[in-house]
Every structure is written in C-alpha cells, then in structure tokens.
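Internal tracking record. Fields below are filled automatically when a chain is submitted to the structure queue. Please do not edit lines marked as system-generated. If the sequence contains nonstandard residues, flag them in the REMARKS field before resubmitting.
Queue: standard
Priority: normal
Entity type: single polypeptide chain
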Amino acid sequence: MDDTIFDKVQSIDLQETMEKSYIDYAMSVIASRALPDVRDGLKPVQRRILYAMIELNNGPDKPHRKCARIVGDTMGKYHPHGDSSIYNALVKLAQEFSTRYPLIDGHGNFGSVDGDGAAAMRYTEARLSKISMEMLSDINKNTVDFSPNFDETEKEPVVLPAKFPNLLVNGT
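SYSTEM-GENERATED OUTPUT FOLLOWS
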C-alpha cells in the first residue's frame, strides 16, 4: 500500500462533525420538504402529486383512478422518497376534515376525524377536485418555471400557478 495516502488523512472531532452535518441536513429538509411554498401553499410532495394527476389526465370530469397508480407515477417520475409518504400526503389532500377545500376528490375510505386511518392505496381511488383545477389550469401557459426531476428525465413545476391563496385557505 502507498504510505502517501495516509499522510493526507486528517483528524476531526466526530461530535462536532455530526452536529454540523445534522444541522445542515435538518435545515435542508425543513426548507425543501417540510414547509409549504407561500406561492402555492404546497409542500413538494403535494405539488408533485397534483402535477402527476394532471399529467395522467385525472381531472374532476374523469373517472377516479386507483391511488396506487397515482402514487406509482408520482414516485417514478417526481418523488423518489417512498410510496407511504406520497400516499399519506394524497390522503390528507382528499380529507374533508383536514382541509377546508380538498384538492383531491377521493373515493373509498380516506380515514376519519376520529383517527381511523385510510384504507390501503390498492383499495382507494382519486381524481383532482374542481378547485385544484384552479391551481393547475395555467400550467401549460408558461406561467411558472420548470426544473429537472431527480434523474433529469422529466420536468416538474417549481411552483403551481395557483389562482387562489391555498396556504391561507387550506393551511399546511
């Protein structure tokens, strides 16, 4: 083995490095995933679900589609962080007791205000609600910027062109 490799090794304090790295990671998560964007009131996973649904032509005038299909498209194209987080976000967007104006029209068991959970995604179906179309109607009119997805095979909107203040109306 070459001894010059070991000459370049630097000693660092593990606790200090972990604290700094964790703070950097936590701030990144908060800024990029946990807080909604004030422009459309959506977290990235929510935005990606709605965009995947409009790409599937899953509007309010179309039949409901299996949530497993919606989750699969969202995960495969825009959000590679696991299906359960996507489905949980989809469920919340469909619950009338979680948001004042649900952005997704759900069909099936989406849980209850008493704390009962939603049925598995293979049993539930969904489509965009009429009000969500107000967030997506100008998506193809060059009104918002698009950025490459995680593997640079698709483009996704940085923000949706919302026509109403979703953050004020529905909260987080």
